[in-house]
Amino acid sequence: MFKVVVGHSNDPDSTEAVAEILEQCFESLAGETPQAGILFAAYDFDHSLILRQIKQQFPNLELVGGTSSAEISSRLGFQQDSLTLMLFCSDEIDITAGIGYQASQNPRAAVKQAIAQAKNKSSQEMSLCLSFVDGLHLNGSKIVEAIEQELNGKIPVFGGITADDMKFEQTHQFYHQEVHTDAVTMLIFSGKLLFAAGVGNGWHSLSKPKKVTKAEDNMLYEIDGKPALEFYQYYLNDSSPSLKYPLAVFEDNSDRFYLRVPNAHDAQMNSVQFFADIPQGATVQIMETNAQDILNSSETSIANALKNYPGTEPAAAIFFSCATRSSILGTKAAEEYQAISSHLNSACPSIGFYTFGEIAPLQKDGAICLHHETAISLILGTK
Amino acid sequence: MKPNSLDYEQQIKQLNKENRILTKKLQRSQERQIQLEETNQKKESLSKRVILDLEESRDVLEQRTIELSEALAKLKTTQEQLIESEKMAALGNLVAGVAHEINTPVGNSVTAASTLAEETTSFTTSVTAGQLKRSTLNNYLDLATEASEIILSNLQRAGELIQSFKQVAVDRTSLERRTFALKSYLAEILVTLEPQLKKTPHQVTVTGDDTIHISSYPGAFAQIVTNLIANSIAHAYPTNKPGSIQLDIQQQPQQIVIQYQDDGCGIESQYLNNIFEPFFTTNRDHGGSGLGMHIVYNLVTQKLKGTIKVTSQVNLGTIFTITLPFSDS
After folding, report:
1. Rounded Cα–Cα distance for residues A83 and B50 (Å)
2. Model ipTM over 0.90
């Protein structure tokens, strides 16, 4: 048995909102006790209050989650300022949670701690890991790198960098009834879980491909031996780099790329700063997109997940889409979930959040990677 | 039935929730408005900069336009001069070609005439001295006959060359303009060529639109068709295989297209570019003057204000496409 239910409230009042989602979940659970859950909440809520209420209702629930820029679910579709909860019941799959603190001090140790904590609660073999992490204390690529090193490709990891309302000030991670910053949370599925994922971004090249000749962490100084800012300004008619023009990064001569979003630049240093690391020696290209291509790529992600699903009846779908995608879509933001959900059986519960970075392997069975401005669809079940 | 207090409570609860949602949405929308206003202000100052830049660019552009116009005018003058010198060069080539061509028959005639003159002097001396022998008379008569034949045939060749030269110059006065049915006129030209065509195994046909009437110079058409057919007969069928030559005419909205096609040996691509040049021939040894296609070219482009293009495939044949304006008046 693998049962998944979803609650979603757009009531801005924390007490009312949590009451509403619990009521919805209770009704759908029909007497079953959930083993684990994922909570996505807008930044403005009283998160401690919400987590206490959930704990009170389900004392043994293995809960993780975090703050988000916007939330989506099969109940209310795309919402801002909302609260959404997905609960899992199963007698065959173990779903266990873990957390690591002060990730910016020692990302590897924090990751190790979170994995160990979750892993120790199950005797079955790990099959899938969901992770929600802070990306403002330490840039997300360092955390994702630590996860990759720690798990060493043993199990696939999906998830996202927790977000706020595009203010980039502070984000929270949830673990049981604790609210944290600078933390790494993990939800590990152990047992014979079936799942498949799809990744889509919808960006097209604007510039020629060039080599990164000087970069340090998330600072890009030189491309093909010339100042990085000049490279951008040449293609943007002297405008500044912005989230509408991310860089595609190709590592090790691969034709697969992930995106990096510029968030600042220094006219004196002629450098551009990104939300996450740019590896020196990689090939990069300035990218551009439009609303329709963003929507098409979201559909591609769910279509690929469904195509690769090894079973016939997925029990749930989880989405991670970049907060910048909803900001580019603007008033069309709700259409992204509509595009995705049109591919799913209406009875299939789904949940998702708008992130500050998406975690998924760059290709099937490959190393995990931090993406930006990308949509990730994950479907799972036992049948 | 009156709704009970529970229903009211439910409704109030729902309304309160909606009120909270709307308040939140309003708050978000106000935040967005502030952001938007800030963005607009930024854009406005950006726009001002952009306008300044644009004005500067416009001034630069205006200056560049003036410079370009001047350069263009200079270029036109140079081009006209070039065309003029090209014409002169072409004329020079023509004259040189004519001189070279006429030089041989005239030279032959001069040699023959000189020999005849010398022999006549010696013959006269013999007659005057009363020493004329029968054999001397016979020798002289043989030589005089041969010399006259050489002189006559060479002067005839020179005359023909001069005639061709006159055609090259496109003697406008000899050609009158009138309105005529194009297809039947082309058929008439073929009739006049019957004596030459009879000597060959080739078939010439005219196809296309019967109804086309054109106001133009029939004499030019006659010369064009005669030269094209003469060219095919002289060059296209070296093995004397029976050929099929086709003239097709089609009317298009603003123009008439005459397609002349033979199924001969074709023209090698290296020669295609030179084919309309005066005195260009691959057949000079067999009496080709290299003027026929040049005459065609001049008639089409100057007299008829049209264009002529040639395409050819070795062993498959050659196509001349003549495009004429419907009315050049």
Report:
1. 44
2. no
